[in-house]
UniProtKB/TrEMBL annotation:
SUPFAM superfamilies to which the protein is assigned, alphabetical: FMN-binding split barrel
InterPro entries linked to this entry: Pyridox_Oxase-rel (IPR024747), Split_barrel_FMN-bd (IPR012349)
Source species, domain of life: Bacteria
One Pfam family per UniProt: Pyridox_ox_2
Organism for this UniProt entry: Bacteroides graminisolvens DSM 19988 = JCM 15093
Record-given protein name: Pyridoxamine 5'-phosphate oxidase-related, FMN-binding
Length: 192
């Protein structure tokens, strides 16, 4: 899988291509499957690079406008925004159906999972209409039964809420380890 990536912290406008190879290709799933995992995950871990070049990953509640644009909200200052100001490139990781298990045929200790990874560019949303749209998407995803209180909540807190937009640089990749009812691992994208 090829991704565009900034070549250095000194030159944010220069891009280079980096190659990401999946070691267990038999577990790779397509990008539509990976997007479905991202939509279903209760949170997505977003990894940043802080201004001092240390890593910072935090699970966040993201919602998508489409397959390419994802949003989260946060306080108007802090580690996430400081990191984005210096290095807007982020990595998103989502996992669902994660379950430790014993391999049905060989007795090995293992883990069944469905996961997705994507790389994107983060930016702080400054337009209030887009901020409200993003907050609406997040609220509809996580609190759909409480949308009647949305407008009042936005009116009270929009001025003290930051919204971050992540635009994916390429389609996400998916990976799965799952056994069928006969105890065989479902490889090469095989579905149930």
């Amino acid at each position: 899988m090829l991704y565009l990536h900034s070549s250095s912290s000194n030159d944010k406008n220069r891009l280079k291509i980096i190659e990401i190879n999946m070691r267990k290709i038999s577990r790779e799933m397509d990008s539509q499957w990976a997007l479905d995992i991202m939509r279903k995950a209760p949170y997505i871990t977003v990894s940043f690079t802080r201004p001092d070049d240390t890593a910072y990953g935090v699970p966040l509640s993201l919602a998508s406008k489409d397959d390419n644009v994802w949003y989260f909200h946060c306080a108007p200052d802090g580690d996430k925004l400081d990191a984005i100001a210096v290095n807007p490139e982020v990595c998103l990781s989502a996992v669902t159906k994660c379950q430790p298990t014993v391999g049905p045929k060989d007795g090995t200790f293992t883990l069944q999972y469905r996961s997705a990874i994507a790389f994107g560019k983060a930016e702080i949303v400054t337009d209030n209409d887009e901020k409200i749209l993003a907050l609406r998407l997040i609220s509809q995803r996580f609190l759909p039964k409480h949308m009647d209180a949305f407008d009042a909540a936005v009116e009270r807190s929009l001025h003290r809420t930051a919204v971050v937009k992540i635009t994916l640089l390429a389609p996400p990749t998916g990976k799965r380890k799952q056994y069928d009812k006969n105890g065989d691992e479902m490889k090469y994208g095989r579905m149930e």
